[in-house]
Amino acid sequence: MLSTSTISVENFFENAYKKVTISDERKTLLLKISDAITKEHTLDKEVNLNFICTHNSRRSQLGQVWSFYAAHYFKLNINAFSGGTEVTAFYRNTVKTLQKVGFEFQLTDFSHQNPTYQISFKGTKKAILGFSKFYSDPLNKEPFMAITTCNNADVNCPFIPTASHRFHLPFVDPKHADGSDTQEETYLQTSQQIAGEVYFIFSEVKKLV
């Protein structure tokens, strides 16, 4: 079980990077993403990352939140968004696993089906809005780099004509553990993997800008 009793966002983020296992093939993909971000960042462009998955309820939102934190941590001009091909909700287990490591959620628009949260963390005055939405939602600034996170074949992920770049970075959906004894651990492990890989990407960008 991943302990959360003394975890802060910063500690979890740094430990995720230390603990994450990245294969050579996966590292090549992460370096391609960091290289694309670096090229835009060094041109003084505002870099927008849009994490995309079918339901925009778990993995894509974890990618968005950890990239939001990573931009602050590494002091990079990068915006993080997320979206889906369907609208569902910012799933409660996703909220809980992020709260456990120190993210703060303030309910700003109550809806039984799809509430909106203002998400922040200690040490910043910035916040992002968390709710399930289409990847083309007006809040998701264009042009953006599309990072698809579904763990099905790349060919099944949506074609996104407005994306400046498109990368397929799949993660296993923690949904499979919903309602089980391993639910909390599974969500934390998924969050840890995503945080660790986001750390890797952003740290590579930081080296070169």
Describe the overall structure.
The protein has five helices and seven strands; from the N terminus they run ααβαβαβββββα. The chain is α/β, with parallel strands linked by helices and 209 residues long. It has a single domain, classed as Response regulator (Rossmann fold, 3-Layer(aba) Sandwich), CATH 3.40.50.2300. The longest helix is centred in the C-terminal third of the chain and has 26 residues.
And the CATH topology? Answer: Rossmann fold
Number of domains: 1
Structural class: alpha/beta
Q: What can be said about the biggest beta sheet?
A: 4 strands, parallel
Low-confidence stretches: 1-5
Radius of gyration: 16 Å
The helical percent reads 25-40%
Euclidean distance between termini CA atoms: 38 Å
The assigned CATH architecture is: 3-Layer(aba) Sandwich
H and E order: HHEHEHEEEEEH
Q: Give the C-level CATH assignment.
A: Alpha Beta
Number of strands: 7
* Number of helices, counting only DSSP H or I runs of 4 residues or more: 5
DSSP strand content: 15-25%
Side by side, the strands of the main sheet go 2-1-6-7
Short description:
The chain contains five helices and seven strands, in the order ααβαβαβββββα. It is of the alpha/beta class and 209 residues long. This is Protein-tyrosine-phosphatase.
